[in-house]
Give the backbone structure.
Amino acid sequence: MATSQSSTDNALWRNLFSQRVIREGTIEEVLSKVPAFANLAPRELKEVAVIVHKREYRSGEPVFYQGDPGLGMYIVKDGEVSILIQGKDGNERELAVFGDGDFFGELALLDESPRSANAVCKTECTLIGFFRPDLFELIEKNTTLGIKIVLKLAEIVAQRLRHTDKELSKVKSQLERLQAQEERDSHGGEKGPIKEEGAGKKE
């Protein structure tokens, strides 16, 4: 009898938790791999999955342009997205390529500043959009969950800013070394005035 009761209990537990399993290929699974949502419980991921937007893009289709209002973040479910910046000369330079599971544009959830670069699909893409209105709706419905996401987003942005500061410091140091080297080369290469042949000789 004890064995039968134990078997029944296990079955009940399996049924109870089966709804909390994150199925492969679902939006919940994609969200669970993004740092902003990685620490959420399955039921919380499901709550977020209900309000995000799944969109299909063709190869070469822009997601947004440099200078567009920042509306929210995108997560790459399938495909590749190129991040390009346009210089003053009109030429574009590729800064990064994002693939499956990567995300970009998260700063727009916290700040409505214009986009700093173009985002263009290199291949056919399926993207998941999570926008400011979605975040505000979530905060209104479930304040604890909304704040948890906001704090994680702030942490991600801070980490990226620290990384950017380090990279800028490296570039600055390299430029200073190059300038110092150029100055040394310039001074070392200076010579006195060259006398014309025969100058100073008496006839």
Q: What stands out?
A: Confidence is low (pLDDT under 50) at residues 1-20. The chain is about 45% helix and 20% strand.
